[in-house]
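[READ THE FOLD]
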Amino acid sequence: MKDLKHLIYFENLLQDANNELVKKGKEDGKFAIGYTCYFMPEVLLDLPGCFSVRLRAPGCTSPDIATYYMSGRVCHYGRSLFERALEGGYNFLDAQMATETCTVTCRFQEHIKQKKLECVSDMDVIKNDKFFCEFTDVPFKKDANAVDHYMKQLQAHVLDPLKENLGIDTSDEALMKAIEEHNEICAIMQELGEFRKAENPVITGYEYHVIQLITLVCPKYLIIDKLRETLEEVRSRKPDKKWPFRCRVVLAGSENDDPEFTKLIESCGAEVVCDRYCYGAEESRVPIEVMEGETPLAAIARHYLDTSNCPRFMPQHDMRERKQRLVDLVEKYNADGIIVVSNKFCEYWSYERVIDTIVLQRSFGIPVCSIEKEYINSASGQLRTRFQAFVESVEIKKIQEGK
């Protein structure tokens, strides 16, 4: 297929958290608001006057200093973020909107938060006089009481601090404008995702992964034109005459902001046709619907709880729904199998990965490749061997079934 016009530009933007467009947004007088988790609604951080940046630590391979503070037995992702913060890589942030969800990222955010207590000295990690950090409590259920609690938390720990500290307009009108802009991004990503269902898709998993990350880490008003142009390009793009892969897979699991991991999978012959992982698009790019009589904030709170498939929801019916969700995605994208990935020492996803590996194969007959990896893809040789073996096993299964 012909190369996408903006792909190299997008790839370059992903090399640094403080990328070219983040700098341009700051020059335009807007405030950069960082976050790490889906439960911090990015739409609230994209209100007029500010923009969201979902934090990454590209290229961080040795978080040695962060390990001193956080221990070597916690997720490499959280340590990598703190290492990058200690290096000065997040000094552009004006605020960090934290969530009480992932324990390790909570520890990272506690370290960068200025506590202003007499009993403990602040580390003063983020060198920005405006910087502040707020924590939002996220419920473990999805019922009406949980939505109400979540909405109140978002008001108290996101909207009120943005207004008080940075002068951001948090009115219902401003929220509706942010929802409208957010939904356009969602519509673009969903249409691009539809092309992946084709027998011979005109967009690869790697390309889609890059574009999805761009929508998370750049000011949306500065990237939207290139996203629209890329969509038009894909609409008229011609696929290779012969499908260059050997099977199709759903990639599920924990935090994954490394497109090179997707590229590694696809270099082994498995096209990634669906992204069901943290930082993926399957949940995060569902448009927000404001129902009749519903306030914008209530709609946002309901939407993010309803759409999340995070394993922190432990009730049995939620666990079963997550398994069925993966089965449905396999059917929806005509996939041949699932690759389930967890970052090493990721508590939630380590349990989920083991259960998925057993249940999806035993109860649904879906081939599963179970992978535990570090945040940065350092063991590419070992992973390549695993992926190649999985692709071969899927091919053998298809032959045996006469497909």
